[in-house]
Amino acid sequence: MVELSNTLQQFVTENLVDRKHTAALKWDALQERYGNADLLPLWVADMEFKTPKAVQDALIQRVEQGVFGYSLIPDGYFEAFAGWQAKRHHIQLEKDWLRFDHGVVNSLYAMVHWCTKPGDQVLVLQPVYYPFMSAIEDNGRQVVSVDLVNQGDRWTIDFDRLETTLAQGQIKLFLFCSPHNPVGRIWTEAELEKVLALCRQYHVQLVSDEIHQDFELNGHKFTSVLNVAKGRYQNDVVVLTAPSKTFNLASLANSHVLIPDADKRQAYDDFIKTIHATENSLLGQVAAKAAYQHGEAWFDNLLGVITYNYQSLKEAFQTNCPEITVADLQGTYLSYINLAPVVNADALEDFVQNRCGLAVDYGAWFAPKDNTYIRLNLATDPAIVKTAVQRLITELKNQTK
């Protein structure tokens, strides 16, 4: 049985926050979203942990100035961001590449509007984070999916179907998720190179959402599309990142758009001012700069807690309900679980909410065919994860009696 180390237990004790009645979407929107305010929430992807102390201190110092007028990007921001990318992922950024937005989802919408016209086809790999589809459909474009292939507890890309789809010549844009939410894959460099080579061959713009890049679990290492084949495809791609998942900063609305190619940058700059003038998020950038400079030890402990939560969850299911499939978690802090052997799709919501008392993300939100899956957020108190898993196991066993 896996055990939580003293160091990680101390991290949990020092950083855990009760977020109920704090206007937290995850906890205080349960009645609105699920019709039951008393569910245990493991859905939306944020955390119950305080951001690093250095981030809190930097924000307090800035707030004490008392003025929040139009602001410049804080001195040293790029150096802090680029230093983190270089140390954690061996990515060598150039300052000219960097643009800002108020969130990766905002940028997904902008990318669809920028790269395509109404009625155009945009490619995704389902199951995938559902705002990918919203960004396409809300802009009047067509979703085309090359569905991932489920090989037990591991998901892979169907490259034959991918090439067939791209070769038809109708796809204008490929929204790519790396690491992949919800299936938890960190794509290998070989997989990434196949994807990028096909996009180059068929003249498809690839936008890579790398917001979960820092969550490297169980020995897996993330490779950015910027680094594939020693940077061979840099000028082909646009990369979206943010500090929000890594350091629990989502509401501070600060994200990055990385465009290595000068012509694409100019085209983006010309486009983006036609839909909105993006002012910088002052506090978001103050927080991110401090996090990149001083948050590494905090983050490494967080990874330890997520790893523990995943290992204890997987062990519990293997021991008590081995027929349930838990996807191999390589990246993200989200566990994708198939309850199909025990729970029918039409009974899933009743089972999860009414019998287990849980609020989760349902697989059907990520792909219509994944209607027996649930996604659980593991960036939380181990006690919450254990309670949720025990409720699921108890009710799953009752199902089979």
Structure characterization notes:
Pfam families: Aminotran_1_2. Its cofactor is pyridoxal 5'-phosphate. The protein has 401 residues and is an alpha/beta fold. The protein has two domains: 6-53 and 296-400, Aspartate Aminotransferase, domain 1; 67-294, 3-Layer(aba) Sandwich (Aspartate Aminotransferase, domain 2), CATH 3.40.640.10. Helices cover 42% and strands 14% of the residues. It is built from 16 helices and 15 strands. It has helices at 6-15, 25-28, 30-34, 53-63, 77-89, 104-115, 131-138, 159-167, 189-201, 244-247, 262-272, 282-294, 296-320, 348-355, 363-366, 382-400, and strands at residues 40-41, 98-101, 121-124, 142-145, 149-151, 154-156, 171-177, 205-209, 237-241, 255-258, 325-326, 334-338, 358-359, 361-362, 373-377. The strands form four sheets. Strands 2-10-9-8-7-3-4 form a seven-stranded mixed β-sheet, sandwiched between helices. Strands 11-12-15-14 form a four-stranded antiparallel β-sheet. A two-stranded parallel ribbon has the order 1-13. Helix 1 (6-15) crosses helix 13 (296-320) and helix 6 (104-115) packs parallel to helix 7. The longest helix is centred in the C-terminal third of the chain and has 25 residues, at 296-320. It is globular and about 65 Å long. 45% of the residues are buried. The mean pLDDT is 97.
